[in-house]
Amino acid sequence: MVELDMSVREQVREFHAKFGVADPETPCIPDPKTIRLRAKLIFEEYQEMMAALGFNSSVLDEHMAEIDCWEPEADKVDLVEFADATSDLMYVIAGAELAFGITGEPISAE
Q1: SS (H, E, C) the chain
Q2: How far is Cα 16 from Cα 18, in angstroms, rounded to an integer?
Q3: Has residue 81 got a pLDDT over 80?
């Protein structure tokens, strides 16, 4: 069981270590397979959120299949913009949790 006082980042790092997922110490652009996986995971959670909010997310299923065929171009990856976008997503998600009166940390720990 994960300790409740661990940050989500620490929980993910522990999970990655358990399954041998790379954890680079400096910013880098991962291989296309990893980029595609991360895009799919984020998109999948977005679909779940839309369904949980009562939206018909079935139209999004088509786009999930597109990600499988997508071949990211490493020379077009912008680490600065990626860092900005992920930071903005975390901020917006925290705001959504506040709007619904929930706290994600205990749920993530579980």
Answers
A1: CCCCCCCHHHHHHHHHHHCCCCCCCCCCCCCHHHHHHHHHHHHHHHHHHHHHCCCCCCCHHHHHHHHHHCCCCHHHCCHHHHHHHHHHHHHHHHHHHHHHCCCHHHHHHC
A2: 5
A3: yes
Residue 70 corresponds to which tokens in the numbers above? 């997508």
Per-residue model confidence as pLDDT tens digits over 25-56: 999 999 988 998 999 999 999 989 988 988 88
Between the CA of residue 103 and those of 51, 78, 83, what are the distances in Å? 20, 31, 23
Q: Is the pLDDT of residue 18 over 90?
A: yes
Distance CA 72, CA 91 (A): 26
